[in-house]
Predict the structure.
Amino acid sequence: MGTFVVCKITNKHRNEATNFKILLFFALLKKLKSMIWNESYECMGREEMREVQNKRLRTTVEHVYHNSPFYRAKMQELGITPMDIETIDDLVKLPFTIKTDLRDQYPFGLFSVPMSEIVRLHASSGTTGKPIVAGYTRKDLSTWSEVLARTFTSGGCSRNDIFQIAYGYGLFTGGLGAHYGAENIGASVIPISAGNTEKQIQLMTDFGSTALCCTPSYALYLGEAVEDKGVKDKLKLKVGFFGAEPWTEAMRFEIEKKLNIKAYDIFGLTEVIGPGVSYECNAQKGMHINEDHFLPEIINPVTLEPVAPGEVGELVLTTITKEGMPVIRYRTKDLTRLMYEPCSCGRTSVRMHKIMGRSDDMLIIRGVNVFPTQIESVLMEFGETAPHYHLYVDRENNTDTFDVHVEVRPENFTDDMSSMLNLRKRIEARIQSVVGIHAHVKLVEPRSIERSTGKAQRVTDKRNLYKE
Ligand code: ADP
Ligand code: ZN
């Protein structure tokens, strides 16, 4: 009898446990679904997605061939017409586009619609003084806020959240991009822009911000300021969306600890749309690419041939819904790899690994793209300096430091402090105006910078931002 009772109780418990597990499973499924903004696209079957991509690619190629003299000429050079592009497998027949193409077509040469249809312009720094310009039609802006709505929903946000947008507003795509995405999900948006840390923290506590959008380095900076002020307990923050520059898992850990949030990586670039090209889900195993808008390829940056599936190489993106400024096989120079395995979040889209490096020498300093060649050309403008320089980038108190050491020509090198100071100030002002950030210039003696016998090593970047 006693055994029987025990058995009965155990069975009852087992049933209850099973029921509980089933309930938990459905609750989890419901929660996961509620973290997906556009299930029909984000969870679309692979075959169906391929059909969507084929169709959209054909439309895009037709569009640029007929409306962009730049792309038409490039295609004609290769002897191809839109008839040659039937499926996404034909993508490899199309020409690549690179940053200098955009610079050479400055300002609007790559626009594929009349200016009357462009409703927004953004810009990012290019390889020389001229910025890269992007133009958006109304539809492009709605695509942009769609992909960011997916991003924010995937981080668990909804209309019940209060978004503090601390990316810079203006020509930079970060601020306004995140702004419209957050409005799209119905969240309450605080368009505070970057900087003014005191005010950030004040509004964060007074308004009860629950989501933060900014660069990861600024998030760390804010985290430290919050610690210093001892207001961590007053924060209602639960999540942050950080991108526009590389960051490591160690930084993620620090940010999450300091602000007591979950930190998500988001990726994008002005040429393609801005932030929103890809985003992390709660599994945080790579960023899901919005493949119904942007087609990814990974190529070997030297041979320009596609790498084997899953291998690391340079990310190439083709926009397949953009109207204003579609880009065809745009070489991002960002190194990553694609992951095709299904994700536990239920999304079916391919994921890209956190950015692992660059195939060119572009530096991202305080969120601004900086090319050593830009600095070189500024230095060359000054007759007093020699073409020997070295750039030092580091991070102190979570802020990037940027030091430019340049040799003064022997005939110009003097002990007269005021004339040296004057030269230094002029160079710093010129770098600020051309590149858009402040560099600390140090004038050094003739022949003090190490000469190289091979390819000159002109940059020391101690930040190790691409390390795991
Ligand atoms: P954004 O406004 O997104 O910063 P930019 O065009 O100014 O766009 O810069 C784009 C470049 O910034 C990318 O090509 C990449 O090198 C870098 N970047 C953007 N987001 C990330 C990220 N999440 N991780 C690493 N690098 C990133
Ligand atoms: Zn996922």
User: Anything to note?
Assistant: Residues 124, 172-174, 243-246, 265-270, 274-275, 332, 334, 355, 364, 369 surround adenosine-5'-diphosphate (ligand 1) (CB under 6 Å). Residues 10 and 56 are 58 Å apart (CA to CA). Confidence is low (pLDDT under 50) at residues 1-7.
